[in-house]
Amino acid sequence: MSKLSTKAAAALVGLSVILSAAAQLLFRYVMQNVDPGTGISAGHWFVELAALPGFFVVMLALGIAFYSGSMLAWIFALSRFDVSRAYPLLSLSYVLVYVAAVALPGLHETATWSKFIGVMVIVAGVSILSLGEDSTRPARHTDA
Amino acid sequence: MNSLGYVFLSVTVALTAVGQLAQKLATRSFSDVDGVLPCIRAMVRSRPFWLAAVCLGLAMLTWLLSLAVFEVSRAYPLLSSSFVVTALMSRWFLHERISLYRWLGIGLISCGAAIMLVA
């Protein structure tokens, strides 16, 4: 897979971000229904997870499936990009998770100005990372 | 209870960074292979792939545990450090060259994530 173009790798980063955001939302939804209780033993958590109704177990399994798909797309993207270049782009999944958690029912999150500012700073960072790299490394365009 | 949550989060950050480096190493297993399925086959036969899978699986577990300990809106501040930790480790262990632009982007993203996740 040495011929993966920059565009294709960027598309795989996008796919990976979307899948991991979907997985995060599912995990959140499930864990909201787990009682943290007062126990601090690992056993307590496994008991709580094992006691979840079937629906939540299916949601958890779906989340794990999305995570696996995200990992597969990610490794292919990493065959093209440095870790230090690609990994920060996963922050876009925070943005997606936030927007979805505000917009979707059942997650009960409210939009705030401070979170909106955080989103803007992340977007600025991703822009600098992407545009900065491309302008300082024109050679990378040749095989795109 | 909260201190346990911080332990879970710190372990999550460490496992995530190691998982990223291992995923990068796993790409070497299929650099000379053509076709998606043969690539996946070569990938799952490589050791770094399984190291990454174990690290990320454990990270998922510790992440779920910290989500259950903390309120959702308070769960994450430490997680934003994973961008810097991963960049430092990819520089030390994979010898990646990190330009000023890249550090600037990574720094802004960490700050943005921290602002978002603390808020």
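qc> Chain A has one domain: 6-130.
qc> done
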